[in-house]
Amino acid sequence: MCKEKKSLNHFNVKEIETLSIPSKTVLLEEGKIADKIYLVRKGCLRLFFYNEGKDITFQFFFEGDFVASFDSLYRGTPSLFSLESIEPSEVVSIKKEDFYHKIGSNLSLRLLYEEKIIERFSFYQHLFLSRIKNTPQQRYEELLKEYPNIIQRVPQHYIASYLGITPVSLSRIRNRR
In the list 21, 32, 131, 134, which could disulfide-bond 138, CB 3.0-4.6 Å? Predict the structure, then answer.
């Protein structure tokens, strides 16, 4: 929470908007161009895309996390995924222009942004390698280690999708523990 408050102090009140959103609220649709970055104050969001009609979740965001389709935001290209709330959430929304103006003129904010981008890159690298070398059981154990309360907050079908398995397979893994 301290980092959140510190980072938000770099913005004027007019540049940010706090949104209280119910679960299942789509903040960005796959194929649309991202024009905002979000900070999760309360709740849980997920990134997902559709593959052959299936909804595939590939990342979760919780309190204190920044989230956007950074590639879409930076390049102005269509987003490869959607962003949706899983539970009732409170997010801070910052418009692209305001955000880039601020990081261009504020070194500490730029460094924080770079740190978050590097964290995201590291996460995706780890996720990629985990999909190649780990079993679903190992991926589940890693997820629980990283997010111990995820089982209470995220529906099982999203967790199964994230792990690349069916909900039935996830049930079997959970029963073995």
Answer: 134
What is the C-alpha separation between 169 and 136, in angstroms, rounded?
9
- Tell me the pTM: 0.84
Q: Could you give the CA distance from residue 96 to residue 105 in angstroms, rounded to a whole number? A: 14
The secondary structure element, H or E, covering residue 27 is strand 26-28
- In angstroms, rounded to a whole number, what is the distance separating the alpha carbons of residues 88 and 5? 21
Taking the C-alpha atoms of residue 130 and residue 52, their distance in angstroms, rounded to an integer, is 23
- Summarize pLDDT for 66-76 with one digit per residue, the tens: 999 999 999 99
Reference 15, options 102, 73, 135, 86; nearest CA is: 102
DSSP secondary-structure letter at 43?
S
CB atoms < 10 A from the CB of 115, how many? 11
Task: Tell me the pLDDT tens digit for each residue of 107-152.
Answer: 998 998 899 889 989 988 998 999 999 999 999 999 999 889 899 9
